[in-house]
Amino acid sequence: MKIEFAPINIPLKRRIQTAAVLQWIFSFLLLAEFCCGFFVILILGNFWFLGVLYLLWLYHDWDTPCAGGRRFQCVRNWTIWKYFREYFPIKLIKTSELSPEHNYLLGFHPHGVLVAGAFGNFCTGQNFKTLFPGITPYLHITPIWFGCPFFREYVMSAGMVSASKESVSYVLNNEGGGHASVIVIGGAEESLNAHPGSLTLNILKRKGFIKMALKHGAHLVPVFSFGENELFKQVANPRGSRLRSIQERLQKIMGFALPLFHARGVFQYTFGLIPYRQPIHTIGDPIPVKKNLNPTNEEIEQLHELYLQKLNKLFEDHKRNYGIPEQRCLVFE
């Protein structure tokens, strides 16, 4: 295998962008484990009383991820996130107005390997606020991460909250409007389909978000992130293969998937865990929803079908702008 090294004379700005993405990869893959290890050392070491104090705080604060979290704008506005977004680059495209008088449930597609588009658009910087003033986005992630000492504080500071029903209800129950729940509909399972060129979405059996939107009268916004699946290559794992079976079994046990992905390195472009520099463009269009505290199965099915139609139309209307061949179509499963 021939290694393609990066040129020596790369501009400093691009090197900073790579460093920003590298720390994001570390945070996504290892920071939770590092925080748990630090907590164990704290408990077993000379400063055990600090660990005990944190446990008391954790007991007191346990429900916060399900009650809107605890965001810090200073963390969301870190300069490092600007370089992170510029690396790809990540751009949020406004195609429709969203009134701050309503609450919204944004269904994000596809999951990709590490959900870079969702994080870059809804957890960093002022871009969303600039395009949609008066609306506060909340990115819902797997509840298991909020059980990790210290790490939970970090992800909450960026505006992430639990993906539990209780948490989504809390966000959408804001009577004054202006809240937006961002849910990655395909979940961890869909990350196993995140191969370059893949357009397969796990959505046909996922209808809980539809029921939630109806019960709270939250307008539904299908969101498609073009380029999300192009950031990494993944070891071949077709359905029915031994690797896929192991991955799906682990996903059911742990609550998150383990895609075997790779891309480029810091100083060379041949192998590593740094994503490729592929642009990500995220777009969406709202579907008005009337509040219905007790929706029937038929009403849920009808809205789910409308959601699929709107998502498919969104993709078809914009795919030419982002280099997707005319014959390529979304696959729902």
From TrEMBL:
GO terms (BP aspect): diacylglycerol biosynthetic process; glycerol metabolic process; triglyceride biosynthetic process
CDD domains the UniProt entry points to: LPLAT_MGAT-like
Catalysed reactions, as listed in the record: a 1-acyl-sn-glycerol + an acyl-CoA = a 1,3-diacyl-sn-glycerol + CoA; a 2-acylglycerol + an acyl-CoA = a 2,3-diacyl-sn-glycerol + CoA; a 2-acylglycerol + an acyl-CoA = a 1,2-diacylglycerol + CoA; a 3-acyl-sn-glycerol + an acyl-CoA = a 1,3-diacyl-sn-glycerol + CoA
Topological category with respect to the lipid bilayer: Multi-pass membrane protein
Pathway terms, separated by semicolons: Lipid metabolism; Glycerolipid metabolism; triacylglycerol biosynthesis
Gene Ontology CC entries for this record: endoplasmic reticulum membrane
Major localization class: endoplasmic reticulum
UniProtKB keywords: Acyltransferase, Endoplasmic reticulum, Glycerol metabolism, Glycoprotein, Lipid biosynthesis, Lipid metabolism, Membrane, Transferase, Transmembrane, Transmembrane helix
Entry protein name: Acyltransferase
Gene name in the database record: MOGAT1
